[in-house]
Design a protein that fits this description.
With 126 residues, the protein is an alpha+beta fold. The protein is built from 4 helices and 4 strands. Helix 3 packs antiparallel against helix 4.
């Protein structure tokens, strides 16, 4: 009985580690949004600051529940566009450039992977 419990625990560890790694990747993406200086997040035609945008993504993450298993799921379900109107979220940077939030977050996710693989990240998109 004890041996079976130990074996189960050892087999479950990789799954827990993957979940934790995905939670860290998602937290990194939200933090990347929250710390953008001077950016305006456009959601359904209305501009929001970085803190409000990050708070909205956290709220959508809570509502998404078990549908979000990976950082890519987070981008798809919580950070790409409005589930009500279908309108894509965009980010307007201080210099006037506008990018889809999905493109920005995918770029940040690539930076995260490079850092965790021991490579230098790309220059920031903003």
């Amino acid at each position: 009985m004890i041996a079976a419990m130990v074996l189960f625990a050892l087999l479950a560890l990789p799954a827990f580690a993957r979940q934790d790694a995905e939670q860290q990747r998602i937290a990194y993406l939200i933090d990347s949004v929250a710390t953008l200086q001077g950016a305006t997040f456009i959601r359904n035609g209305t501009g929001y600051d970085a803190t409000q945008a990050a708070d909205h993504m956290r709220l959508k993450l809570r509502f998404a529940g078990s549908r979000v298993k990976t950082a890519e799921d987070f981008i798809t379900y919580c950070a790409t566009g409005s589930s009500m109107s279908g309108i894509k979220y965009t980010i307007r940077f201080q210099d006037g450039r506008v990018v889809d939030s999905a493109a920005f977050l995918l770029s940040k996710l690539a930076d995260y992977a490079k850092v965790h693989d021991g490579q230098a990240p790309n220059p920031p998109v903003h």
